[in-house]
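Consider a concrete sample entry:
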Amino acid sequence: MTRAEGKSVIEQKVDDFFKNEKEYLSKSFQETEARNRFIDPFFEALGWDFHQTNLKKDLWDVHREFSQRDNSSTKKPDYAFRIKDTNKYKVKFFVEAKAPWVKLTDCDPVYQAKRYAFSSHGKTPIVILMDFQEFRVFNGMERPIFENPLQGLVKGFDLRYTDYLDKWDQIYDTFSKEAVYEGSIDRLIGKVAKNTKTLDDEFLHDITEWREILARNIALRNKDLTVNELNEAVQRIIDRLIFIRNLEDREIEPENTLLDLVSLTPDLSRGLYGKLIPFFLKLNDKYNGLLFKPHFSENLIIDDKVIKDIIKNMCYPVSPFQFDIIEPEILGRIYERFLGSKIRLTENHQAKVEEKPEVRHAGGVYYTPQYIVDYIVENTVGNVLNRRLHLNRRFKSSVQCESAMTPEEIAGDNGLKPIAILDPACGSGSFLIGAFQYLIDYHKNWYATAPKNIQKKYKDDFYVTADGEIKLTLSKKSNILKNNIFGVDIDREATEVAIMSLYLKLLDEGFDRGQAELFMKGHILPDMTGNVKCGNSLIGTDYFDNVDLSLFGNDDLKKINAFDWQREFPQVFVKQGGATPCSHSSGFDCVIGNPPYIKYENLEESIKGYAKNKYQSATGFFDIFQLFLEKSYYLNKENGFLGFIFPNLFLKGMNYKFSRRFFYENTKIEIIKNYGDGVFDKVQMPTFVFVVKKEKIKNEKISFYTKKTD
């Protein structure tokens, strides 16, 4: 529709509303009617197509959410307007629709709309609040304040329907499909002020505050807790509450469940916290998984005010966070920074939160940007899945199956070994989530392109929505997690967060409740404790060879946290003798991640001594990331792939020459891609992506190039 044609449509709609304003402003004229009669035609006049029934839903320009409940405070945005950017669709702005009788200057509708935009983490900060009578545009980059409905209002876009014709060029030049493709929304957002706190900063602030309040109260009321128990209990309680809020906002569990529970009369012996325990047990029966398994934290004493205030601050209308909008990847990155500090106990058993020493030495916690995660996953996991393999004969009639792995090969069915993907320093799980998402997308594409006779065989693995979109069943996604995703981290709290992040990714698209309850009763979430484990990836049990263990206290053993790879992951490794745990058929197909960078001078002397006896890379003043790289080589199976991001110093520094030589002589170097400065926020550290294949080959002359990144 052209600009002039669109204006003609709007002229008719304005005239209609003017002539029948009394009827349209009555409470009998509801939101759905307003959308059908006025709001949909308004955006169609701007060139947006609402009837792309010939395309799959994931290719539509406009996604509409019609499943919201009346008077719901957690429903999704009514409209998401998208454009195609290279191979992906990006949401450029939201629209929240209301019935015309709702005052769009009131705090509640404005706050609700801005929560959507704010929770997108800057990806979609523009939201329009509209009932046709009014058209108001907000920039939701900043944390919304309920009592300030004028916050973020975009100048020149606070309009009434009587303004539309005079302002049509301004509206068209900003929100038409044509204008959005030409960058109008980016110009509208403008430059973000340096002191603007975005979602990750604000959520980190809040979750840190909840931890401190909870830790102080638990330490005060439960004097027998050790410092490790205190850290574990606080983490488990916060993770449970955040996970439940995600279930509520995704409409998997009823909204306001937590708020309703803490509004009840307190339990006489256990207080309000005691009211939550039966609900936790109910969720354990329904979901299984890790988070709600019986835990000693359920026996703690917590003051009513503390638990009530924390929950109120997680929920609408106090909380600015719309949890179903926050991507699991973003939540994981926030947790990455959160886990950079730990609770300690004073002599008087008071809780204090302090930055971890290793984080202090590193100058902070720096999460890996998503485009780096995606690039590494695509060039490791993608290479494994898409290479030509010896396939089972029954699939040779399919050209598609000849060039890519089948679901059986990935899952390890019929006596095959599953594809195993590892992050040996997984933190909150960003690389594990990236690998999981890649596997989901791969399976969707495989099923979509397989011949009909092949598809029938996998009828329990996927389904086709009414919009023609292929989606994996919950059981299939659970099997992918159990069969293919593995992680290790020295921090127990980090492994719990990684598992929670994977669970949220599992539930990201929702699921068929009836099917889940019928076929997966009590096992909606897979038990990932056998896949994501706590341990020191670099130190094996040989650390204690020829040493009297009685000289080590429990705290010393926990701090060292030696890890036996063969024992912990028997599904991946074939038991054998020798110094290295891998044979040609044993080990991980892909080892990926962003290991910690810790300089030699900041390592403990005992670790230095062990490393120098164990690793060829531990020569001179080595960095711990070199040890992770070498260890990953041994954990990798023959013809498997390694993919990491490292400081550029590795490419030329004298301290790294033995590591370079090791990989030059023992692997096929696939990618050395220099990203320069700016990969990690507020850090001047040139970095590069390093991808190798575990295959002895004479490498050609190595070069790298600089890629300009957004």
